[in-house]
Design a protein that fits this description.
216 residues; mainly alpha; 0% strand
Length: 216
Amino acid sequence: MDILHTIIDYLLHFEVHLDYVISNYHTWTYLFLFIILFVETGLVIMPFLPGDSLLFAVGAFAARGSFDFWSICVTLFLAAVLGDTVNYSIGKFFGPKIFAKKNHKLLNVQHLEKAHAFYAKYGAKTIILARFIPIVRTFAPFVAGIGNMAYKKFMSYNIIGGALWIFSFIPLGYFFGNLPIIQSNFKFAMLGIIFISVAPGVIEFIREKQKNKKIA
């Protein structure tokens, strides 16, 4: 159990342990980061893995010289695009059966329905917008696959969304991550990034609750 707890802690707070990983695994860190981002965007059962905060942390470490800026950006861009592509394919071929089950052991159907509602509201733009919203980011391509969005259309939005996501958070970390005030409060900065990215979903949840109360 201790080993399992350690692994889970590393996965959920990978950005905190990034310095240790870089120091001990050097260029292998590129592969580790690729896998984490690929899994976070590509497997619908893994929406809890770090995304925005991890990209910000990567940018900060790139500014210190731990990563080559363009190499890490391209690596994680490929991970994001490939992850969404795999997620879309899973949704297209297996999604309808999974969606039909209301009590799935590995899948939070409420999150899936939330992404479905988001997709119904914003259409294909969801693939771009969802990049900046945790949970929805993981479920959006899955729902697009279920909805049989045209593959070429999906890929165009996938590439645009992936580029905007990667080339916004990593540069933010690169330019602001090494400011003295951020350095001395790095953990709080990570929490701030997570809060900002989660805030839209929380606001929408509160609005839904208030709407339901009025109806009742």
